[in-house]
Design brief:
The structure holds two protein chains of two kinds. By secondary structure, chain A is mainly α. Chain A is about 75% helix and about 0% strand. The two termini of chain A are about 30 Å apart. In chain B, strand 8 and strand 9 form a beta hairpin. Among the domains of chain B are: about 65-190, Dipeptide-binding Protein, Domain 1 (Dipeptide-binding Protein, domain 1, Alpha-Beta Complex); about 290-495, Dipeptide-binding Protein, Domain 3 (Dipeptide-binding Protein, domain 3), CATH 3.10.105. Chain B is an alpha+beta fold. The chains are: A mainly alpha, B alpha+beta. At the A-B interface, helix 2, helix 3, helix 5, helix 6 and helix 7 of A face helix 1, helix 7 and helix 13 of B.
Chain lengths: ~300, ~525
């Protein structure tokens, strides 16, 4: 994990430095003079060579710090500490919606392959993948806020603020899960062990739950893990539309203003979240499928 | 009943039960605090430390929390704020301010002249990070202090607890205007010591409101300061909600969660039609100028014929009336009309035939010209309109669209042939539209991004800055403006009008041409 994170810091640092634009011009505003620019460049360490800047950043990291934002002067670690729980909450809520509905609909579609239910669900799935979140988000806002007047259009806070961004964010994952579940279940249904189970006289419910669903789990868990991991890196559009104070908006504002400490901090936290998510998925594989258990531990 | 139908019915039941459960847990679309005026801001203010503020959002909130020695009134004249009165020496270099004795910071302490000195020196502090030193560096001894040669600014002298003398290096006629700006607000030393760099999030001033809550990227809550020397605001407080998306803000407004919003360009026509006769839409001529800048330091636009060709080729009036839906006034030069007390210069009319001749004369036919713009969709649309007009005149324009940070770096470094940008007043004086934008000492990030150089114009602007009477000052500024219009370093487009719509429940709402004017004292329910 540590070498991976060091690699990530180096790559992100190099990429941020390669970006065109200069943070100093954003700090000084529309009117400045060369003396002020020079002073601020010195203040933020932009006058030093890239390697020295990187070494300084790594030293800061080893002290458990992520630096201060060039613009707000606030500690990046404190900002992330405020925003990451919101992102985590939103990601959890989105996956809580997407996972059961996606898997259930995918399963129903597979069991009814070629029939009306399959066609309807597949159409919904394609629409979910194709519909951009800024469009679906605004539609939800129009319906729940303006028409029904039961949900506030924007803000960060309790359940009422969470519902619409969570539904919006869940739609692409839901659609992907429908597709992956349908395909995997269809593949599994053709397996010999399913035919054997049926020949043994097992009920369809038992075949579906014990043989098909259990064996189809691995790709579904993989997709859930990947989607959840990407949501933990923030969802810029959803957060912007609903004014949700998450890590995606924070990182985006950092990128636009070339606020290097903010960009680096957000990317680092996002990477850690993604790596941890993959680790959790690997652990779940271990329990979901005996075939991927490490040799020697389960003999 | 087929499986498909059963599945559909289950889905419908699920959706209905979801909606019912939301209603049952008491969700509502209302999000208001009674007695507070709810405003929308697009972004989280960068900082509320007056020494550090460079953005309008930070400035308009800081104006409610802090006071300067002087402020602007509705006629854009300088008027007393913390200073009850002042006098200026005949040579225009010594300003003596007499402070009111009842001004207190919101922490309860009385404000005195030493706080003014502390605040000014804090901006100029060589160890500080303020990007606003240019506002106060005209004070005598400021440069030596900024370079660490002196421990205090020699030109700031206390004359007792309620009087302060400020001595300038040389006469600078807009100096009082500079003192109305955010960086010249007075801050309490003990709070700066207490909070250190985090004063930016915990500001304490002497203004009519005090910050009671700042949930970053969510909202700011300002309660009225009951000890404010200017009396108590008519409302309990102000709530600034941070909503980046225009359509979301519009939804919040339509639900009554916001009291005022700026009308988004995409909704302008609908809102105007919907509010016809209701007197809820306000507009205010902004003190700004939108322009197409030429890079005058290199070919092809170092040649005045090339600049003229572009100027003749563009029908500014038509673009303003059609695409911009008359949300602005046509510019007659760089200076907005409300700051100009002399006859406006006459700009050349749209003349495509003359433009084509000029393109041939300057040898521009077929030459690729880069037009730099930001990623703002409205600006990109304008760029495409300009590209089309210039194509008709025989010019081949390549639009280069960059996000704001890269765009600023590119135009500051002189990479663009042409660029689209606007300039908004820091203070309401013609000097603010001349010195930073056209003086040859300000090339690049200082404001003169066209790299325009005309020694005669430099001399006229400097003469205006030194003039002690308004008449004399205006004389020099009018000559400078005419010379600039003749040289055409810009195509002068328009001065944008700000348009807002408010709820009928909001009373005494007014728009102000400069953010610092609005102290939030008049508005009520």
């Amino acid at each position: 994990m540590i070498p991976l994170l060091m690699g990530i810091t180096f790559i992100t640092f190099s990429l941020t430095k390669a970006l065109p634009g200069d943070p100093v011009f954003s700090i000084v505003g529309e009117r400045s003079n060369p003396e002020i620019i020079e002073k601020i460049r010195k203040e933020i360490g932009a006058d030093k060579g890239s390697l020295r800047q990187y070494a300084g950043y790594v030293t800061l990291l080893l002290q458990g710090e992520l630096g201060r934002s060039y613009y707000t002067n606030r500690k990046v670690v404190e900002d992330i500490g405020q925003k990451f729980p919101n992102t985590f909450l939103l990601a959890c809520a989105a996956m809580t919606i997407a996972t059961p509905i996606g898997v259930l609909l995918g399963f129903i579609a597979a069991l009814n392959k070629g029939r009306a239910a399959d066609k309807i669900i597949t159409t919904l799935s394609v629409s979910g993948i194709s519909m951009p979140v800024f469009w679906s988000g605004l539609l939800l806002m129009l319906f729940f806020s303006l028409r029904l007047k039961i949900l506030p259009p924007s803000g960060t806070g309790g359940l009422q603020y969470l519902v619409m961004p969570a539904i919006t964010l869940s739609l692409p994952a839901l659609a992907t899960l429908i597709r992956i579940t349908r395909i995997t279940v269809l593949d599994t249904m053709d397996m010999q062990y399913v035919r054997t189970a049926r020949a043994k006289g097992m009920t369809e419910t038992a075949i579906n739950s014990i043989h098909i669903m259990k064996n189809a789990l691995i790709p579904i868990i993989t997709v859930i893990g990947l989607e959840f991991g990407s949501y933990l890196n923030g969802a810029v559009l959803t957060e912007t539309i609903f004014g949700w104070d998450g890590i995606g908006r924070y990182a985006m504002e950092g990128i636009v203003k070339r606020d290097y400490p903010v960009i680096m901090g957000s990317l680092l936290i996002g990477t850690i979240a993604f790596v941890l998510m993959n680790l959790i998925v690997d652990i779940i594989y271990h329990y979901a499928d005996p075939r991927v258990r490490v040799h020697g531990t389960d003999r | 009943m087929g499986l498909a139908n059963r599945a559909e019915i289950r889905l419908i039941c699920l959706a209905l039960s979801f909606i019912c459960s939301l209603s049952l847990i008491g969700c509502t679309s209302s999000d208001r605090i009674a007695g507070y005026v709810h405003y929308r801001i697009n972004y989280n203010p960068t900082t509320l430390d007056p020494a550090m503020i460079v953005d309008v959002t930070g400035g308009l909130i800081a104006a409610k929390l802090f006071n300067g020695l002087v402020r602007l009134d509705e006629k854009l004249e300088v008027t007393p704020d913390l200073a009850e009165s002042w006098n200026i020496s005949p040579d225009g270099t010594i300003y003596t301010f007499y402070l009111r004795r009842d001004a207190r910071f919101s922490n309860g302490r009385l404000l005195s002249s030493s706080d003014v000195k502390y605040s000014f020196e804090r901006v100029l502090d060589p160890g500080g990070k303020s990007p606003n030193t240019w506002i106060l560096d005209k004070i005598s001894g400021a440069k030596a202090f900024m370079e660490g040669e002196r421990s205090e600014v020699s030109g700031i002298k206390l004359s007792g607890p309620y009087a302060i003398r400020i001595i300038l290096e040389k006469p600078f006629s807009p100096f009082l205007n500079l003192l109305t700006m955010t960086a010249a607000y007075v801050v309490p030393k003990e709070e700066i010591r207490k909070w250190g760099e985090d004063f930016a999030s915990h500001p304490v001033g002497s203004g009519p409101f005090r910050l009671t809550q700042w949930k970053h990227n969510n909202h700011l809550l300002l309660d009225r300061n009951e000890n404010y020397f200017g009396g108590m605001a008519m409302i309990m407080g102000l709530r600034y909600r941070i909503i980046p998306e225009d359509l979301t803000a519009l939804t919040e407004f339509e639900l009554g969660n916001l009291d005022v919003i700026s009308v988004p360009a995409s909704e302008y026509r609908r809102i105007m039609e919907k509010n016809t006769g209701k007197n809820l839409v306000s507009s205010m001529e902004g003190i700004n100028t939108y322009y197409l800048g030429f890079n005058c330091s290199r070919p092809p636009f170092d040649d005045i014929r090339a600049r003229r060709a572009v100027s003749f080729a563009l029908d500014r009036k038509r673009i303003l009336e059609t695409f911009y839906e008359n949300r602005g006034r046509l510019a007659h030069g760089p200076i907005p009309d409300m700051l100009r007390s002399w006859d406006a210069p006459v700009l050349p009319d749209y003349d495509p035939a003359a433009a084509r001749k000029m393109v041939d004369a300057a040898g521009l036919k077929g030459r690729k010209i880069q037009l730099y713009v930001t990623a703002d969709p409205e600006v990109v649309d304008i760029a495409e309109i300009l590209q089309d007009y210039l194509r008709t005149a025989g010019l081949s324009v390549v639009i280069k669209q960059l996000e704001w940070s890269s765009y600023k770096a590119a135009i500051n470094n002189g990479e663009a042939d042409m660029f689209w940008i606007s300039w908004w007043a820091d203070y309401p004086d013609p000097e603010n539209f001349l010195f930073p934008l056209f003086h040859s000492s300000n090339h690049g990030p200082s404001g003169n991004r066209t790299r325009y150089t005309n020694r005669a114009v430099d001399a006229l602007i400097e003469a205006g800055q030194k003039s002690s009477t308004r008449k004399e000052r205006d004389h020099y500024y009018s000559l400078a403006e005419r010379a600039i219009v003749d040289d055409m370093p810009w195509v002068f487009f328009w001065h944008k009008t700000d348009i807002t719509v408010r709820q009928a429940t909001l009373k005494n709402y007014r728009m102000y041409p400069i953010y610092s004017l609005d102290k939030g004292m008049e508005v009520s329910f």
